[in-house]
Amino acid sequence: MSCNWGTELWDQFDNLEKHTSWGIDFLERYTKFVKERADIELSYAKQIRSLSKKYHPKRSREDESRFTWCLAFAATLRQLNEVAVQREELADSLNTQIVCELTRYTHELKTERKTHFQDGRRAQQHIESSWKQLESSKRRFERDCKEAERAQHVSDRIDLDSKTDGEKCSSQLVKQQAAEESRKDYVTSLNQFNQDQHQHYHTLVPVIYQRIQDMEERRIERICEAMRSSAEAERKVLPVVSRCLDAMMDAAESTQPRMDTRQVVEVYKSGFDPPGDVEFEDYSATMRRSISESSYLDNRTEGRRHSRKLWPFIRKNKPPPPPPTSPSPGGVASSPQSPPPVSREPITQRLNDLMTSGSRTRKQCLRSLKRGGSSPADCSHLPPEQRRKKLQTRINNINQEIQREREQRDALLKMREVYEHSPQMGDAGSLEPRLEETLNIIKPTCLSLSTCLSLSPDGSYTEDHSAELHFKSRSSEFDDDFDDEEPLPSIGTCKSLYPFQGQNEGTLSMVEGELLSVVEEDKGDGWTRVRRNLEEEGYVPTSYIKVFLDSSAKGAMTYI
User: Fold this and answer.
1) One Pfam family from the UniProt entry (predicted)?
2) What number of H helices and E strands is found in the chain?
């Protein structure tokens, strides 16, 4: 069905003006709606991204990388973050493709509408002016006709003399001529108005209203196009969002409860056997145990046997000793506490100090390396099974680091060989610093591996025994270098307050009241290095002794 506002709504100018104004208001409201929706999408994406980041597992938590349910949750958070990215893209599409375009189009539409209705008002004013002119001509013609008719009636009723009759006839003739001229003006105005009216309602109004109708149809089409663009923008992100949801489902399906429960066993299994039966304790006979000289000599022999191990720094190991059960006579009233744990430098920093230091400083760095980091180097604080796994992991990491450095060294050697045969390709001497740097990295790494291998009493912490022998032989040159070290000078003396059984490697046994030489002060870790003679040297708890430093030492300090 054809529809033309120019013919169907020729007399609805005011209503068309109101309707088109309401249409533009609707366009502006729809633009605001899309903008607010884009803001909501952007805010939603921001909140989802913040939520995903908040609950994303921290790198320091190793437990969350072991269990399948933790991995599934981490995968879900990653996919949720991808959903947030898609929502941000949707918001950007709504803003750039719809909001900006509709804002520009609304401004153009207002300008076009104003032009069309100005043309309509001018046409309306023209037809109204023509109508007013017609009415004026009509009233003047009506007035002149009435005056001529009245003059005719007066001349018929009064019989005057010839002079008077001549004057009346002359006045009547003038009025009749005026009426005739008014009639001609009225006819002219009427023809002009009819012509203007025909042109107004059959030419001007249809053209102007048709333009307004076309403008309204374009506005509606633009709104529909914006709706389609909005739906299309969201449809583009739906496949990616659907894949993210599928990935979340796959992550949920990948959880394996039985594997996680087995992993709990791997993580927390101690390796200890269950306790046996409790033995009967006979309280009928009282026995008092004391430390005899023979047991003390046995401890000294045991200490020497520990100090003869291949690892040259084994006497530096200082595990925390148990506190004495009761203070010996003549000691302080309260038993001393075990040395508090202290934070130490990481092993990598010790290795860097080792690589960049001189010969004697290197030995001091190696001593510091042997003492370990924030936890004991031998992992003695862990149960046997966990200790084995920890050391095996450490050995594997060191092996990988050594393998990388060896590959780099072999590549440098091949490059140097090529340069030696073809000097035009490069200077072989320029590779020497890099080769030396690589060797300086490999040597301390081998020492660190030897440390891990020596921490096992049975050598069971590595599956490759040939590699263990190889790296032990590589570190032999450092062992020989340390064995030739001159003993450190004495900086004072000390007196033992309590007996101490040095059952761990690197410690020294002592009896109450024994005088020893102080070789190294307490560095803040609760241990003091002492010497009994040129062959017996080790660490004792600082809280078990009373130290008297020489006057030439750094101040006079006493540890009680």
Assistant:
1) SH3_1
2) 14, 5
Q: State the DSSP H helix or E strand holding residue 273, giving kind and residue range, or none if neither.
A: none
User: Which residues pair with residue 518 across a beta bridge?
Assistant: 492, 530
Torsion of CA 207, 213, 214, 219, to 10 degrees: 150
- The dihedrals phi and psi of 204, each to the nearest 5 degrees, come to -70, -55
List all residues 6 or more positions away from 381 whose beta carbon is below 8 Å from its beta carbon: 375
Phi, psi (rounded to 5 degrees) for 321: -85, 155
Rounded Cα–Cα distance for residues 221 and 237 (Å): 25
Q: Report the distance separating Cα 256 and Cα 244, nearest Å.
A: 21
First to last CA, the chain: 111
- In CATH, the architecture of 5-158+166-254 is Up-down Bundle (1.20)
| Length of the chain counted residue by residue | 560
Stated pTM of the model: 0.50
Q: Residue-wise over 319-342: b if at least 16 C-beta within 10 A, else e?
A: bbbebbeebbeebeeeebeebeee
Q: What is the pLDDT at residue 545?
A: 93
52: nearest Cα among 80, 72, 73, 71? 80
Please determine whether the domains at 5-158+166-254 and 492-549 fall in the same fold group of CATH.
no
Residue (of 475, 476, 471) closest to 403 by Cα position? 471
Q: Where are the domains of the chain?
A: 5-158+166-254, 390-456, 492-549
pLDDT of 483: 46
Radius of gyration of the chain (CA): 54
pLDDT at residue number 340: 37
Q: Which residues of the chain have pLDDT under 50?
A: 161-163, 288-297, 299-351, 354, 357-374, 457-485, 554-560
- Token pair, residue 410, equals 């072999």
Show the tokens assigned to 204: 């001007």
Q: Quote the CA–CA distance of 446 and 468 in Å, as a whole number.
A: 10
